[in-house]
Specification:
With about 325 residues, the chain is of the alpha/beta class. It is about 30% helix and about 20% strand.
Length: about 325
């Protein structure tokens, strides 16, 4: 996407300690709404996470406000641009965790793995002694991952600890003391997964600084070990090298990413069904989806935004 595209997308997270996350919500939500910023931000006692989009002035104001929150002065922000607003509303949600792993005693601030810059990542994952783990969920891994990475096939991040413990037991049974390299979309899941691995007793634990998005932005395609596209949690659906918008779309019925081949299947009906959900939805549900799709098409023809549109997925990374 051109640097001149009107909308600026900012993906961010920061593990810090908020004594009262609920007290931070009203001012943050009001500022974003007043300045045309949309997206989703999650607040919890462990920090903030989310993706927002708007014109430059609005995003600058939102980021300035976020940087004034406790522990967020040096928050890292991954930015890209889009030709249209990729979100339909602004949400600031209160959560128990900003990325849900379900390990209540885990403190990511107590010690994460060693950060590895994108420029050094290829060397690390090319080492035959390195176990490379994709910490994302199965539908994300399905459209792209690093060459040779292990896929835990998790439906949610809550399943990762159980998978990791089982995998570690397998490696130790083989007499291996694993050197582990983990990666995710923007880095946040790796903050927790590497902290978890260290809490489980592993010493050599690494993660890709800034996640896949940072790698795709800084490593040239001809040197890349990334294969496929990277799923993102907004209307772009997927991105490739240079963060160019990818070829995937989103099924509005089941929220799964769809390749051009998926959309060529007979089971794909825009807004109604796709190969992933054709056998798991009732006729009543599909009728409801069809009516929603019809209303959205009518609104688009009038140059309006359909008030019932809800296309953005939850914030993650």
């Amino acid at each position: 996407m051109s640097d001149n595209a009107p909308f600026r997308i900012a993906a961010l997270y920061q593990f810090t300690r908020f004594d009262d996350p609920a007290a931070l919500r009203p001012a943050l939500l009001a500022l974003c709404e007043e300045n045309g910023v949309r997206g989703t931000l999650l607040l919890a006692r462990e920090g903030i996470n989310g993706t927002i989009a708007g014109v430059d002035h609005g995003i600058e104001l939102a980021l300035a406000h976020i940087r004034q929150l406790p522990g967020c002065a040096a928050i890292e922000v991954k930015e890209s641009r889009a030709g249209h607003q990729p979100f339909h509303r602004m949400k600031v949600r209160l959560k128990k965790e900003i990325v849900t792993m379900g390990e209540p005693d885990l403190d990511p601030l107590a010690g994460v793995g060693t950060y590895v810059a994108p420029e050094d990542w290829n060397a690390l994952i090319s080492d035959p002694d390195t176990i490379v783990i994709d910490t994302r969920n199965d539908y994300e891994v399905a459209i792209g991952t690093f060459r040779g990475a292990e896929d835990p096939k998790t439906k949610s991040f809550r399943e990762f600890p159980e998978w990791f413990r089982a995998r570690r037991a397998e490696l130790e049974a083989e007499g291996k003391s694993p050197k582990v390299a983990m990666f995710c979309t923007g880095g946040i899941r790796c903050e927790k997964s590497t902290a978890f691995a260290r809490a489980e007793g592993l010493d050599e634990v690494y993660h890709l600084k800034g996640g896949i998005l940072n790698y795709l932005e800084h490593v040239p395609a001809e040197e890349s070990m990334w294969e496929g596209e990277c799923f993102v949690f907004d209307e772009r659906v997927s991105v490739g090298h240079g963060l160019a918008v990818g070829d995937h779309s989103l099924c509005r019925a089941c929220r799964m990413p769809l390749s051009p081949e998926d959309m060529a299947q007979e089971s794909f009906v825009e807004g109604v069904s796709c190969p992933h959900c054709i056998d798991s939805r009732t006729d009543e549900q599909r009728a409801r989806y069809a009516e929603r799709q019809r209303q959205e098409a009518l609104a688009a023809a009038r140059g309006e935004e359909h008030v019932g549109a809800r296309h953005d997925k939850k914030a993650d990374g």
